[in-house]
Give the backbone structure.
Amino acid sequence: VPQPHLLTAIAHPLVAALYGGAFLTALFALMTGQRHLPTATRCLTAAGLVTQTVMIASRWQAGDHFPVTGLFETLHFLAWWVAGITLYYSLRYRANGFLPAGLGLTLLAIGAASLGPQKIFPLIPSLDTPLFFIHVATSFAAYGLWGTAALLAIFELADRDPGQCGRWQRMQDEAIYLGYILFTWCMLAGSLWAYLSWGSYWTWKIKGIWSYILWFYYSGVIHIRRNPRWQGWPADLLALAGFTLVLFTYLGLGVFFKTNHPLL
Amino acid sequence: MTAMPARILRLLWRLSISPVTFVVLSILWCIDLGIGSLYAYWRSDLFGTLDNYPFTVWLRTEGARAWPASIWVHALVLLTWLMVASLLLCTVNWFLYRRKRLKGLGEVLVHLGFLLVFAGYVVGAVGGSRTLGVTLPIGGSARVEELGATLSLRDMQPLLGPGGSVQGTVNNLELRQGNRRVASRGVKINHPLMDGATVVYPRGARQQVEGVRMIVNNSLPVELLPNRPVTLPTGHRLALARILQADETAGNARGPGVVVAVSAPDGKELPSSYLSSAEGMPTEAAFAGLSLQLAGFSGPMLGVFDVHRDPGVWLVIVGALLITLGTAVAFGFYLREGMPG
C-alpha cells in the first residue's frame, strides 16, 4: 500500500518555490545587469538543493530504499543534478548568464515530477537489488547532464563573442564526460542486473537497444569532440542531437511503446 | 614503385586507427540497430525469439527463416565486427607508439574493456546454450540435456510482494552432474542458482491441470476429474472431455482450461463448453436450467525454470570492470588538463 509522506507535501512546493525564485532573480539579473543578484540566485539555488536533499534523504529513510522509483522521484533526482551542475558552473566558471537556462530546465523537471504520484511505494521483489538503484540513479543523472550540455550548446551557438567559446565548450565537455561516465555505470549495472534476473546482459527489447544506441552515440561524440575540426558549432549540434535521442529513449519509448521500463 | 604499396598501407593504417572511422561506423551501427529495433518491435512474429537463443543459434535458425527481413541483423553483425577491428587497431596503435603517454591510459582501458566484452559475447553466442521452461513438481527432477546435468526442486514457497500479493516463488533447487551435487540454494528473482557459467533462473510457477472445480447453479461446488463423470441433482451429467495446460492451445481456446461435456436429464448431448482462467477466455457457461462457473483447477504446482550457460560471461565481467576503471581514469586526466587556451 503506498504511503503518503508529509515532508514531501511540504518540501516539494518549497523546492519549486526556491528554484522559481532563483530563476526569476537570475532572469532579472540578466535583463538589468545588476551585479549583486547572481549571489541571491546562488543562495536560493543552494537552499533549493539542500531542501531537495533533505526530502530525498527523508523518502529514502521512510521507504527503506533509495528513492528513484516512479516519475516523481526520478525527475526530482534529475532536477537535483541539473540544479547542482548549474550552481557549480556559476561558482567555478562565473557562468551567470547560464543560470536562467539551467534553472529553467530544473523547474521543468520539477513541474513534470508533479504529474507523478508523491506517495512512497513499497518495493516489488524484482526491483529489490542495489543494481536497480545504481542503474536508475546514474541514468537520470546522465540525462540531466546531457540536457545541460544541450542547453550550453544553444548558448554557445547564440554567443557572438569568440572569446567565450572555450568556456562554453569546457562546460559542455564536463557535462558530456560526466554524463557518459555515469551512463556507462548505468549500462553496466543494468546489464549485470539483467544477467542475474533474466539471463542475459544483452537484451533485444526495444528500451535496452535504444539505451545501447544512446551509449554508443555519446561514445562517438566523445571521440570526435577532441578533433579540432569538430569543435564549435558541429559539437553543439551533436550535443543537441544527443539530447533529442535522450528524449526519445526516455519519453518517446515510454509513451508510444510497450516497454519493460514503464514511465510511471 | 615499392613506395606506392607502402604509402597505401600507411594510409589504410591511418584510416583504420582514426577516431573518425570509429565514429562513422558507430553512426551506421546506431542507424541500423535503431531502424531494426523499431521493425523488430512491430514484427515480433519474426524477431520475438531473439532473446530465447544464443545469438549464433538464432541467426542460423530463426534468422534464416526470417530472411530477407533479418538483413538488418546481418548488417549489424558486420558493422559490429568492423567497429571491433577499429577499436582493436586503435588500441594496438597506442601500445606500439603512444604507451609512454599516460594521458590516454583511461581510453585504452575502456577500449580493452569493450574488446573483452565483445570477445565474451562471441564466446557465449557460439558456445552457450539456453533451455527455457523446465517444469518441475516439488520433489521432482528433470534432465537438462544441453548441460548433461539434472535439476531438482526440493521445495517451493510463494514470494510475497507489497501487501502480501504473490510475486513469484522461492525455490530450493539443486543441480547435479552425475552423482555430484554442483550447486544448491534457495532461488528467487535476482538470486539465481549459479555454477560457473551455468545459471538457473526462476520463471514463476504454474499449475498442472488434472481436474476442475466448478460452482453449479451458483451454489453447488463440483469437482470433475478425468473418467469420473458427475450426475447433478437436476439430472444433468457432467464429464471432463479435454484438458488444456497453460502453454497449450486448441483452435481459439487457450490454456489453462477444460472442455466440459454436458448431457441433459433425458440423456441428450448438449453443446460442450470450454472454461478457462486465461485472459479473455470464458469462465462461465449457461444452459437451460444449468449454469457452470469456474472456481479453480486441481493438480500439483510446478516450478518453471530457465537454464542458461554462457561460457563468455567472465570475459564480459572483466571487460565491464576495465570500462568502469577506464572511464574514471579518463575523467581524472581530463579534469587535470585545465581550461583550453
About this structure: Chain A has a mean pLDDT of 89.
